[in-house]
Automatic annotation (TrEMBL):
Domain Fe2OG dioxygenase: from-to ranges: 274-398
SUPFAM superfamilies in the cross-refs: Clavaminate synthase-like
InterPro entries assigned: HIF_prolyl_hydroxylases, Oxoglu/Fe-dep_dioxygenase_dom, Pro_4_hyd_alph, Pro_4_hyd_alph_FE2OG_OXY
One example of a Gene Ontology biological process annotation: cellular response to hypoxia
Species the sequence originates in: Cylindrotheca closterium
Cofactors named for this entry: L-ascorbate
Protein's recorded name: Fe2OG dioxygenase domain-containing protein
One annotated GO molecular function: L-ascorbic acid binding
Keyword field: Dioxygenase, Iron, Metal-binding, Oxidoreductase, Signal, Vitamin C
ATP-binding is among the record's keywords: no
Region forming the signal peptide: 1-19
């Protein structure tokens, strides 16, 4: 398989409404160059942007010295050679003004390879979106993730703090915490790692983009942090604490027996698994997130359960949120509003319309909330004019063979 990214003027692709094309074993995406700069400067900026993309990740590896219009790299994870080529089209009757486009080309029928490459480029789209239109890239990434089933996660025992005494310090009143989580579906702990003012500012580098969801639903900005990124801004302890919770719950929480067999790497004895990143979210003045469930019910019925339960949207089992806000007051807004015992509601708004009891959690520094991902909750509007409400979220998963197909991405 060979992957090419080229600056070309291709008539057949330019006429493709979606910007996507398939020719023989080749998958391609067109990136129209924006017209707000001189062409030579534009080409140079795009070339530098993609060089930075290659150097920002081990997914792409430089293969040859970069030229002005031509540089190449490899994709070791796919066992493929990747060529980044930048070429200015020659004048023609069809393109009299030297119109140029960026084309991402993958010579393979494997949609997953094409999708993963698009997804990796999309992670760093801020490097080059000033010079090219990335709309078609976004659509390809959405198609890719919509084609995947939910990931079963990684063993909870792989966390840095798995079985560490530090987790005993976090759950100081173990019996109370486990009983609270089991009976009410949530527990609030105020002795998690705190965030300094300087640490809060270091997170700025990761918060560039709003979510792609409807602004009537949520208005926050998010970024998924790797452990390496967390270390780079002094949040290693926060990251490791969140990742370690699943192993503690596997060993100490009496969980309800599932009628479904666990999916590897989960086991009957250790049913909870973890992801490989945590979400950083920021809410500024007037930002909010409407009532919702992190693992809602679908319309699909479970075939092997006597009471015909409906299938869940994903494998999320517990949502863990660690707040990173120094000097946050209740009057600043931004509370997490939890509706206990609402996991069986199909419509999140029913919790509000039917007057279900709720519990507000102010996002104070060092406060950790763990709750049943199926329960309805919301983030109330931030009212402070200058403070930024920031939180780190990890979703502990419980993968099983219940028929979960995954959610549709925006």
């Amino acid at each position: 398989m060979r992957i090419d990214i080229s600056l070309l003027s291709l008539a057949t692709l330019a006429q493709t409404a979606s910007g996507l094309a398939t020719v023989a074993n080749t998958r391609e995406i067109v990136f129209p160059l924006k017209t707000n700069q001189h062409k030579d400067l534009q080409l140079r900026n795009v070339k530098y942007a993609f060089q930075e993309l290659v150097e920002s990740t081990d997914f792409f590896v430089q293969n040859s010295p970069a030229q002005f219009y031509d540089s190449t790299c490899l994709v070791p994870a796919l066992g493929a050679e990747a060529a980044f080529q930048f070429q200015q089209s020659t004048p023609s009757d069809l393109f009299p003004h030297w119109s140029t486009e960026l084309v991402l080309k993958v010579n393979t029928n494997a949609n997953s390879d094409f999708g993963w490459i698009c997804a990796k480029v999309f992670e760093q789209k801020e490097l080059f979106e000033d010079f090219v239109d990335t709309t078609n890239l976004y659509e390809a990434v959405v198609d890719h993730y919509n084609s995947l089933g939910p990931h079963p996660g990684f063993p909870a025992s792989s966390a840095e703090l798995s079985n560490s005494p530090k987790l005993n310090d976090l759950f100081r009143e173990q019996d109370f915490c486990m009983e609270q989580l089991r009976d009410t579906g949530f527990v609030v702990l105020d002795n998690a790692p705190k965030t300094s003012v300087a640490g809060h500012r270091l997170l700025d580098q990761f918060l560039h983009h709003k979510t792609n969801q409807d602004t009537n639903v949520r208005t926050d900005s998010v970024h998924f942090l790797s452990r390496k990124e967390a270390q780079s801004c002094g949040f290693e302890e926060h990251y490791d604490t969140l990742m370690g919770i699943a192993s503690y719950l596997n060993g100490n929480l009496e969980m309800k027996t599932s009628p479904h067999d666990p999916m590897n790497p989960a086991t009957q004895e250790h049913p909870l698994t973890i992801p490989n990143s945590i979400q950083l979210a920021e809410y500024a003045e007037s930002d909010f997130y409407k009532a919702h469930s992190d693992n809602s019910l679908t319309n699909k019925m479970v075939s092997d359960v006597q009471n015909n339960d409906r299938v869940r949207a994903n494998f999320r089992h517990y949502t863990c949120i660690l707040y990173c806000n120094d000097d946050w007051e209740e009057q600043d807004g931004g509370a997490l509003r939890l509706y206990p015992h609402t996991r069986n509601l199909s419509n999140a708004n029913d919790a509000i319309l039917n007057g279900y009891d709720f519990f507000d959690v102010s996002p104070k520094n060092g406060r950790l909330v763990i709750f049943d991902s199926s329960n309805i909750h919301s983030v109330e509007k931030v009212t402070h004019t200058t403070k930024k409400r920031r939180a780190l979220t990890l979703w502990i998963t419980r993968p099983n063979n219940s028929g979960v197909e995954g959610e549709q991405y925006f």
